[in-house]
Amino acid sequence: MARIDVVMPQMGESIAEGTMSRWLKKIGDSVKRDEPLFEISTDKVDAEIPSPSAGILVEVLVNDGQTVPVQTVVARLETDASVAAAIPAAAPSAPTAASAAGAPPAIASVAAPAAAPNQPVAPPIVPAAPALPATPAAAPGSFEDRIRTKSSPLVRKIAAEHGIQITGLQGSGVAGRVTKKDILQAIESGVTAPAAPSAPAAPTASAPIAALPGASMYAPGGFGFDAPVVHPWPGDVVEPMSKIRRLTAGHMVYSKHTSAHVTTFFEVDLTKVARIRQRMRGEFEAQYGEKLTFLPFITQAVVQGLRKFPVLNAAVRGTDIVFRKQYNIGIAVALEWGLIVPVVKQADSLSLVGLTRGINDLANRARAKKLRPEDVQDASFTITNPGVFGSVMGTPVIPQPTVAILCLGSIEKRPKVITGPDGEDTIAIRTCAYFSLSFDHRIVDGSDADQYMAFVKKQLETIPDTGF
């Protein structure tokens, strides 16, 4: 008998757990090596996990929706077909208490109860909302504390051996997460982190929103008033948030609570870009096999602006400003199940062709759940493009720990007053869009943000026609 253990993979050093989104194979199915076996969701990326070996799936140990630590055995494969055939098909076992807590409940429709005529209708009985999956070794507290304590098992082990509280360290990972390098540097420097503050009581199932990362201010009394309690009405449908939705909610609340958000708006004339794109798109697509959109042109101008105004390509670390020397541009991609922001690394070194390939590749792999954890890390600036859905302008939330995000409105033809060659005013049809920049007013002054936007606008309106 040759049994192969299938484990929950560690999709990056700082990831300590994963949620089983769904099994792509069922017990008794044959699977080839590297064939997608199941989907997982982490706080970095949703991904399809390939089978480590060819064989037959004979045992499933982790149910859909259950969150488990990395390296947990989630299934077993049998490589000997004759042995697998002799194994009787087992009925799915009842979920344990742990798995029940991790698995989302089925969508429930709240029906109105029957009542006798002229009798008041009793409110519908709604089952208590399930508690969100517990995070291994995570101390309840602020969002930053919970993120730091969700460091990898190795980091937590090293910290415990040296008597260091992870919550007292400022990590270099995403959202301040403490990495192996951070903990080793702390040990070498002889600095012992201060003890973490006493943790408040853990949220209960009766107040599930308080369990969302970064949403503790929404707990009753968090702002000095009791938050309203939501009761489903007859006919309502109740469904749990997905993993990516819960994480998005936490990050958005955390960002609004952390950064002083200000948004500035500019109208940009893209007529010249549109003409250049229209002229070269046929040859470009034939030569490179890629669709040429407006986004690579805009990304080029964005990067040029960041080099001139480095405070927009920065991050905040406590009372320090970290000026990034890498220009890694996050490009928001809307998916059916949520929003994800893959990152074009070293965008300043890429040509128009390179940017087009990079942006298209990341978007395609995001929709196919083929992104790697490193594909969604280390952005220094972000572009979001709701204009493709018809949005005219927006005020996006800044992704932490960066300090700015650019929102692109719909690109459309508009009548504009322009100055003719003889100085006369005339009305012309121009291709325009509204760009909005949300920036962190803690370190970015309004003058810097507006000068940056004016520079990007000028670059796009006076773009030279130099080909690819």
Q: Low-confidence runs (pLDDT<50, min 5 residues)?
A: 90-143, 193-221
Number of helices: 10
CATH C-level category of the largest domain? Alpha Beta
* Biggest beta-sheet profile: 7 strands, mixed
Mean pLDDT: 79
Give the C-alpha Rg. 26 Å
- CATH level 3 topology of the largest domain: Chloramphenicol Acetyltransferase
Number of strands: 21
Amino-to-carboxy terminus distance:
58 Å
CATH superfamily of the largest domain: Chloramphenicol acetyltransferase-like domain
Number of domains: 3
Helix content percent band: 25-40%
Percentage beta strand: 15-25%
CATH architecture of the largest domain: 2-Layer Sandwich
Could you say which overall geometry the principal axes of the C-alpha atoms support? Answer: globular
Structural class, please?
alpha+beta
Task: Detail the topology: elements first, then pairings.
Blueprint lengths: L2 E5 L9 E7 L6 E2 L4 E6 L4 E5 L4 E6 L6 E3 L3 E6 L2 H6 L10 H6 L5 E2 L33 H7 L3 H9 L18 H10 L47 E2 L4 H16 L2 E9 L1 H18 L6 H14 L5 E4 L2 E4 L5 E3 L1 E3 L2 E3 L2 E2 L7 H16 L13 E4 L19 E5 L3 E8 L5 E16 L5 H16 L7
Parallel strand pairs: 14-18, 18-19
Antiparallel strand pairs: 1-8, 2-4, 2-7, 3-6, 4-5, 6-8, 9-10, 11-21, 12-13, 14-17, 15-16, 19-21, 20-21
